[in-house]
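Hi all, posting the design record for the shared folder.

TITLE: backbone redesign
STEP: 1 of 1
STRUCTURE INPUT:
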């Protein structure tokens, strides 16, 4: 593993569909922005989720462009969001299945349409820009296990390293839908909580088995607690309509405390990912999961205020919308730009601009048409309708709904 690759290790994962579980929070007049295809009724897009996704991708970019400490947590934020969103989608599909709706088809067809085209396009573009030894590595990327070569130290093209996290999520997509279908919600909550509790112990026990930190960092079995954290939040909130509202302050306190502990422990030389220490591997990722899970709970309950305005602002929600493609290309663009520029600030500015342009073109000309909707038409896909009386989820202004992931 080269020094350059070691520098590029904290990579993120990209989220998928901006759909929210059918949870209920507090009384408020709500308008339906649209009905999602594939029999997933009453699915809504939450602007705060896009805002959080934008924050996550900015953290990842900052970690790679400037080496900002703790910004490796951007990957964990994506995992938490994925666990929350995917669990909500699966719960809704399971409910629809009882009335004749599709479960497997609705879920996997959309996963393929959303994830595969940009992924394949990225690999094709990369083949023209970098020397990719496909004959020796093709199977890792065809079968969605690119986290395994990273764990084994066999990544030969640094620009391809970010896709390890896609492998983690795809492996999650293969296992979790079965559990959601076969288990009751209470059982799923216990499974998610068990994964959160057991993961730090598993990482601690496995650390002496590896000479580097990459297996702990990139293998799904060791990183499942972040996905489980998001899943637990979705399950708990779907079980209790007031769960998010009651736990917002506690969640905020947990986030602040977890971040404070991470910062405080970072003064120790052994508290580094590269140190491959039992201390870091067992505690750091768990603190990240708790802190980011608390952040998600707090943000989901926001109705107004500065943070709500920031997360739902057009620049952040749009960056969140295109963040999947941004994630795929940002490292490759950074590497290419660094060949011509030498100032870190100029490299970052140029790479960010180019990556945003690539992502915009990909979304409007390639991704949105494949998904079967125009970003300009999503907000008007169906006329606003009043929701039936009763407590509902957080208010969502249909005019803020953007193109659906």
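Okay, here is what came back for every position:
SEQUENCE:
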């Amino acid at each position: 593993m080269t020094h350059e690759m070691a520098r590029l290790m904290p990579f993120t994962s990209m989220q998928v569909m901006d759909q929210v579980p059918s949870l209920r929070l507090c009384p408020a007049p709500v308008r339906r922005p649209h009905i999602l295809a594939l029999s997933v009724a009453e699915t809504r897009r939450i602007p705060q989720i896009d805002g959080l996704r934008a924050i996550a991708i900015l953290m990842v970019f900052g970690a790679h462009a400037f080496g900002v400490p703790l910004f490796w947590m951007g990957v964990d934020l994506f995992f938490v969001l994925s666990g929350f969103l995917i669990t909500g989608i699966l719960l809704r599909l399971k409910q629809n299945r009882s009335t004749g709706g599709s479960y497997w088809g609705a879920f996997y067809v959309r996963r393929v349409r959303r994830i595969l085209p940009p992924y394949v396009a990225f690999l094709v573009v990369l083949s023209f820009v970098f020397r990719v030894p496909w004959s020796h590595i093709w199977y890792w990327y065809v079968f969605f296990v690119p986290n395994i070569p990273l764990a084994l130290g066999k990544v030969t093209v640094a620009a391809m390293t970010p896709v390890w996290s896609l492998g983690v999520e795809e492996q999650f997509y293969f296992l979790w839908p079965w559990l959601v279908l076969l288990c009751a919600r209470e059982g799923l909550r216990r499974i998610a909580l068990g994964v959160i509790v057991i993961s730090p112990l598993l990482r601690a026990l496995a650390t002496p088995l590896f000479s580097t930190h990459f297996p702990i960092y990139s293998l799904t079995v060791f990183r499942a607690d972040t996905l489980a954290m998001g899943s637990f939040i979705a399950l708990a909130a779907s079980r209790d309509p007031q769960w998010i509202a009651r736990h917002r302050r506690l969640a905020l306190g947990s986030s602040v405390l977890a971040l404070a502990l991470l910062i405080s422990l970072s003064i120790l030389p052994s508290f580094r990912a590269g140190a491959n220490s039992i201390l870091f591997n067992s505690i750091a990722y768990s603190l990240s999961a708790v802190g980011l899970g608390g952040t998600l709970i707090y943000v989901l309950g926001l109705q107004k205020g500065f943070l709500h305005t920031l997360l739902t602002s057009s620049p952040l929600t749009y960056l969140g919308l295109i963040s999947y493609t941004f994630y795929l290309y940002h490292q490759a663009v950074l590497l290419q730009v660094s060949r011509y520029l030498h100032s870190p600030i100029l490299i970052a500015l140029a790479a960010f601009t180019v990556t945003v342009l690539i992502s915009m073109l990909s979304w409007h000309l390639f991704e949105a048409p494949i998904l079967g909707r125009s970003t300009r038409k999503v907000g008007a896909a169906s006329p606003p309708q009043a929701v039936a009386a009763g407590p509902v989820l957080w208010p969502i202004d249909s005019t803020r709904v953007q193109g659906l992931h």
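COMMENT: Confidence is low (pLDDT under 50) at residues 1-43, 374-405.
Let me know if anyone wants the other runs.
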